[in-house]
Amino acid sequence: xxxxxxxxxxxxxxxxxxxxxxxxxxxxxxxxxxxxxxxxxxxxxxxxxxxxxxxxxxxxxxxxxxxxxxxxxxxxxxxxxxxxxxxxxxxxxxxxxxxxxxxxxxxxxxxxxxxxxxxxxxxxxxxxxxxxxxxxxxxxxxxxxxxxxxxxxxxxxxxxxxxxxxxxxxxxxxxxxxxxxxxxxxxxxxxxxxxxxxxxxxxxxxxxxxxxxxxxxxxxxxxxxxxxxxxxxxxxxxxxxxxxxxxxxxxxxxxxxxxxxxxxxxxxxxxxxxxxxxxxxxxxxxxxxxxxxxxxxxxxxxxxxxxxxxxxxxxxxxxxxxxxxxxxxxxxxxxxxxxxxxxxxxxxxxxxxxxxxxxxxxxxxxxxxxxxxxxxxxxxxxxxxxxxxxxxxxxxxxxxxxxxx
Length: 405
Ligand code: SAH
Ligand code: SF4
What we know:
By secondary structure, the chain is an alpha/beta fold. The chain is built from 13 helices and 14 strands. S-adenosyl-L-homocysteine binds next to strand 10 and strand 12.
């Protein structure tokens, strides 16, 4: 019989990456196996390309069978792969044991001799199935919230990425929590996953090579500074003025932009690490003169790094990416305010790779009526926000999981 656990309220079979080393040792001993088997198990999981207990040949058949009856080797029932950008990007659609689907994206970049950096491979992981924050330009926000991922479900996204890279003779260099979900609204599992990933027995990635991105959960930023000070913080800012940020990041109603910046500044002071701000550039919405001026004045002197990312168009919004010339102008305006700025290409667009898009497709489209209604509401709310009016209610997602559909 398979062992089950009750993470996040649902009964799911226990998977290997949900066990820390002590818990794994206890299980191995319960199975009557010797303690050196723990190392063999972890090596098989993290240093080979095995996808099942049967692939960990060092264990021998009887133990493989006993383990298979007790513990799932992988957190995922299904792994669907899509390649994009001539193989530079691999998008993974992962089915969890309860049928929920999440995405992880593996991005490879060549060495850059000018900056003295070697080849990089970054995996972008999901921390939740869906997301409760509901940013209207985001495909995940549109899906609504399904559930938190467990620490093992997060780590196994990295494990699969490592296995893919191993077959190419490449190393994983960075992990970013920028997939589906708001990591700081699942902070205990996210911290436990960081502890697992930095464990030398499980790949041992350096804490400084891990970035957590948040839409602005202030208490979470404070905990990150105190409890995991080596981790890089990225803040999804999108707008410097509250009326517009209320619309683009509904969490702004709870923690307004001043509180988010104050928390990020104190994170930076406490940890000595520079904050990265992410701004998704939306044509005619957050790229107008008053917004770029407000952004420059808000961040002036902070020493922060700003990533300007053209919005990936998603079906339910009336919005498009900003014009490249406008993004360049804003980048220069921010540089003049003493900030370092990167204009990002939107990785994996060919595979529909922006946050949650693939999973949203699989979940089925919301009805055309719901989409049309949503677009109308967004147009009205953005017109009001651009005039400086703060609206009382966030706009509910149009479904398929989130509401009106
Ligand atoms: N919830 C966290 C982390 C995951 S989202 C956060 O919001 O920070 C990761 C990044 O993708 C965020 O900066 C988000 O704003 C961005 N993003 C979401 N939808 C996008 C879209 N349609 N186009 C471009 N960037 C998008
Ligand atoms: Fe959630 Fe981030 Fe998408 Fe906003 S942008 S809905 S916080 S995943």
